[in-house]
Specification:
Bound molecules: octanoyl-coenzyme A
Order of helices and strands: EEHHEEEEHEEEEH
Structural class: alpha+beta
Number of domains: 2
Radius of gyration: 20 Å
Strand order of the largest sheet: 5-6-8-9-10-7
Strand content: 25-35%
Shape: flat
Length: 228
């Protein structure tokens, strides 16, 4: 087993479940790259396991090998989920996030890009995201849209949670390369109204609109922000 100490634990400050953790940014970047490389291989494993046609005996041998690898990872674990952490430089990391978590093989992962009108992301969804034959599971579409819409609503300056999310599935979304786009339609007090879509090469397959709400306890006064 390696002698590396456990990843630094939570320090003093915690806001709304977002944990202040003063790990220096270069160390966060380094560890993130290590975990992302593991998650990438686990993602390959998931795809390979779904699509394998090797014989039963080989499946059982691979299962036993994998059980040994799980034991090695379990040798040192966080007590619960990874959570969302940030340091004094406002470098944030959410390695377990279901959509963008660097350490989470379930996450495609989505790489969200901020642009002039909101956010977009290009993603390739494979066999692990199938619902109807050859098509993306409707819940997966909703999950990815929820995330990019939440990031758009937050606009890197406030925290918002999904209040209401409405989906319109116009036609099946094929597995493969897809583009997500999201933008803010309007704002009313603590409510941010966001519209979004998923498209394949032939156009939009799913449309969504949602109300994202800045919880009262987490609201940052805009006047304080501009005068700072
Ligand atoms: C870093 C980015 C990550 C992005 C992650 C993707 C986003 C997510 O998945 S978040 C997880 C899923 N969402 C949740 O778990 C949220 C759970 N719900 C809550 O926490 C709260 O109910 C919350 C925050 C939505 C609203 O709470 P609160 O601040 O107390 O609202 P409240 O004061 O009652 O209402 C404020 C306004 O919002 C409206 N509102 C409240 N809840 C909702 C709702 N669910 N839908 C629509 N409007 C609502 C109210 O009517 C009110 O409107 P108005 O000002 O016009 O009277």
């Amino acid at each position: 087993m390696t002698s590396r100490p456990p990843f630094p634990e939570v320090s003093a400050l915690s806001i709304g479940g977002f944990v202040r953790d003063d790990t220096p940014t270069p160390e966060v970047d380094r560890r993130e790259a290590v975990l992302a490389s593991l998650a990438g291989t686990v993602r390959e494993l998931v795809d390979a396991a779904i699509r394998t046609t090797v014989d039963d005996g080989e499946v059982h041998r691979i299962r036993d090998d994998l059980a040994g690898l799980v034991d090695r990872l379990r040798a040192s674990q966080l007590p619960g989920p990874a959570g969302v952490r940030f340091n004094g430089e406002m470098r944030a990391w959410n390695w377990g996030n279901a959509v963008v978590g660097a350490a989470n093989a379930i996450a495609p992962p989505l790489e969200v890009v901020h642009d002039a009108s909101g956010c977009h992301a290009d993603v390739v969804l494979g066999a692990a995201y199938e619902g109807p034959p050859g098509l993306v599971h409707g819940g997966v579409s909703a999950m990815l849209l929820d995330h990019i819409m939440g990031v758009t609503a937050s606009a890197m300056r406030r925290t918002t949670f999904t209040g209401t999310l409405t989906m319109r599935y116009r036609r099946g979304t094929p597995l493969g390369p897809l583009r997500l786009e999201a933008s803010i339609a309007r704002e009313e007090g603590r409510k941010v109204f966001v519209v979004a879509s998923i498209a394949d090469a032939d156009g939009v397959t799913v449309e969504a609109d949602g109300i994202f709400i800045e919880p009262a306890g987490l609201r940052i006064d805009p006047q304080e922000q501009t005068s700072a």
